[in-house]
Design brief:
single chain, TIM Barrel, two-stranded antiparallel sheet, 12 helices, globular
Length: 325
């Protein structure tokens, strides 16, 4: 099966600064100390190529068994990566354009197979110089959008930024610059923030929004948390300019199985439809909890009953259209 992976990260710790990897620790997403090493395009392609081999690595056996349990007569699926989208890796905020410059050089290199085919760059939309930053990002041919992490949570364990950007007038005013530079916005937030995001999407109907990680169902273990996530997703899905990436699920389910992921995957697809939903890996972060083949096999098992056209949308076509690749 051909796949497009619309959510990957690369980092070169030898030549670039990533503050969160300077002194990583253990958090809800796992032990980030295991991520403190270079993850270059060759490393990512090696992970992806293993998913296309006839013999999946030993580490994938558990997820493949889960998939087989769902469809006992199926042979192991092979996945051929054809395109990828790089999402900002929380590069040095003092020079966010340097990451884009590096990624463009990677994509232009002979060994990258043209990847990343699209770049979603980092920018602080509250900064005084944000228009200059956006213009500099947009000057690179593979730039397609911007991500600024917005996650705020009452529990310090889950809080990323400690600041409600969407409530700030200057931030919202600068958000309008994205349309000027033909940039989409990767929306990373928690369910409690979704009502504010709905307002933002309605205020900016010509800017494409892509919800990251299926809305990050952080409080999923309570009925109230499930409803807040489900209802928030459906409110966002009612905005025609909003799509969603089904990714990052392992950050909240470290011992995941096909069955533990199934309700979240199906609920997300039901809300957005296959034309506005796409599978993604969040590698190498989700690599902490399983192999590349394991993850994509789980997705395939969950939507095993979908039509060929529906699968093609989820695994490839939606990402190609949304990110213009």
């Amino acid at each position: 099966m051909k796949i497009v992976d619309p959510h990957i990260h690369l980092w070169d710790l030898d030549t670039h600064h990533y503050p969160w990897l300077a002194n990583p620790g253990v958090s809800f997403v796992g032990d980030a100390r295991a991520l403190k090493h270079n993850y270059l395009i060759a490393d990512f392609l090696a992970d992806a190529d293993a998913a296309g081999s006839a013999h999946a690595p030993e580490a994938h056996a558990v997820a493949d068994a889960n998939a087989a349990a769902t469809n006992p007569t199926a042979s192991p699926e092979r996945f051929e990566l054809v395109k990828a989208v790089h999402i900002d890796a929380n590069h040095d905020p003092a020079d966010p354009v340097e990451e884009t410059r590096w990624l463009q050089s990677v994509a232009d290199g002979a060994a990258s197979r043209g990847m990343p085919n699209a770049i979603v760059a980092g920018a602080d939309l509250s900064a005084d110089n944000v228009e200059a930053v956006l213009a500099a990002h947009a000057a690179f041919p593979n730039t397609r959008g911007i991500r600024q992490i917005l996650n705020v949570h009452a529990n310090p364990l889950y809080d990323y930024v400690g600041r409600h950007y969407m409530r700030e007038s200057a931030w919202r005013r600068n958000f309008g610059l994205l349309r000027k530079y033909r940039l989409s916005f990767d929306l990373q937030l928690y369910p409690s923030q979704m009502p504010e995001a709905v307002e933002l999407a309605r205020e900016n109907p010509h800017t494409p929004f892509i919800v990251n990680h299926a809305g990050m169902f952080v409080d999923r273990d309570t009925p109230l948390g499930w409803r807040a996530w489900r209802d928030g997703l459906r409110a966002l899905a009612a905005c025609e300019n909003v799509a969603v990436k089904i990714s990052g699920l392992a950050m909240f389910d470290h011992a995941w199985t096909v069955e533990s992921l199934r309700p979240y995957v199906l609920e997300t697809i039901d809300a957005f439809g296959v034309e506005r939903a796409m599978f993604a890996s969040n590698f190498p972060v989700d690599r902490l909890f399983g192999g590349y083949h394991a993850l994509w096999s789980a997705y395939a098992a969950i939507v095993n009953g979908a039509s060929a056209a529906e699968k093609e949308a989820l695994f490839r076509r939606t990402a190609e259209r949304v990110y213009r690749i």
